[in-house]
Amino acid sequence: MINKEVSQIITKRRSIFPHQFNGKKIHKKAIQELLTNANTAPTHRLTQPWFFKVFSGNSKMKLAKELVNQKENYSEIFEKKIISKFTSSSHVICICMKRDATKSIPEWEEIAATAMAVQNIWLSCVNSKIGGYWSTPKEINKLSNFLNLKSNERCLGLFYLGLYDSVSERVLNRKNIKEDTEWFN
Ligand SMILES: Cc1cc2nc3c(=O)[nH]c(=O)nc-3n(C[C@H](O)[C@H](O)[C@H](O)COP(=O)(O)O)c2cc1C
To answer: What is the distance in A from the centroid of ligand 1 to the CA of 147?
Structure first.
């Protein structure tokens, strides 16, 4: 049988958003542990395409401003929203991916492997007071200069992280997987 504790951790994983954070700072050691777990994700041909840029303090607010500057049409609402999200967050991690130089596997596999690394971060937050979520604003495609990314590197999103006290349950109407599974004997 499947280990119940593993199933519980998987089903308990949820997105916790910046407005739910309490504004306290996460210890660097905890962030390092999240990233160590990320690093155990499966990866075809061991290309290990993921890498992370972790922002806190002043640098975090510089990243927020960069996102605002990169917005196609300036919007005060967008600026306020981003600044508020970054202020509430303890750390913001830029989720990055490096394409294998020899293109030994298709790009989608490297994106998939990076997503699995992110899932490891997300799962590692379960049963702790650390919460977070993966955000993919359009502006992440314009961060290459700011993040010093090379031509074979991409930013696949931001992972907002913060501490929270309690959250009310957000009910999600998930599909019934039985209806989307075909069995063949
Ligand atoms: C690749 C990816 C990108 C996402 N981008 C966003 C985003 O831009 N904005 C957002 O509010 N949520 C984003 N999410 C989080 C989803 O909204 C969230 O996972 C979904 O609502 C299910 O909630 P749960 O994580 O609590 O199960 C993203 C999730 C994934 C996997």
So the answer is: 23
- Distance, in Å, from the CA atom of 71 to the CA atom of 8, rounded to the nearest integer, reads 39
Distance between CA 31 and CA 37 in Å, rounded? 10
Q: Outline where DSSP puts E strands in 47-111.
A: 50-55, 91-98
CA angle 24, 27, 29 (to 5 degrees): 165
Neighbours of 26 (CB within 10 A): 21
Q: What percent of the chain has pLDDT over 70?
A: 100
- Please work out whether the CB of residue 15 comes within 6 Å of at least one atom of ligand 1: yes
What was the pLDDT predicted at 169? 86
At the topology level, CATH places domain 25-179 in NADH Oxidase (3.40.109)
Cut 0.90: pTM above it: yes
137 within 8 A of 88, measured Cβ to Cβ = no
35-91 tens-digit pLDDT: 999 999 999 999 999 999 999 999 999 999 999 999 999 999 999 999 999 999 999
Closest atom, ligand 1, to C-alpha of 136: 8
The Cα–Cα gap between 124 and 140 comes to 24
Interval between CA 134 and ligand 1 midpoint (Å): 6
User: Residues 61, 146: contact at Cβ < 8 Å?
Assistant: no
